[in-house]
Amino acid sequence: MAQLAYVANRGSDNVSVIDVDPASPSFNTEIQLIPLLGLGSGPIGIVISLDGNRAYGASSIISLR
What we know:
Helix content: under 10%
Radius of gyration: 13 Å
Structural class: mainly beta
Order of helices and strands: EEEEE
Number of helices: 0
Mean pLDDT: 82
Shape: globular
Strand order of the largest sheet: 1-2-3
Distance between the termini: 41 Å
Largest sheet: 3 strands, antiparallel
């Protein structure tokens, strides 16, 4: 199973996925950039579901229309 870190990039609309498996050839590199559509800018947190299939993000700025 892959060992990944999900990092909320404050000041942008995305989350970086970092490979943190020391045995992986892509260790300590960003392997994916996930856009947070609909949240606005400034993601401040992220949580992964227990089964690892979903990520939920929180934003410091939400635009209500």
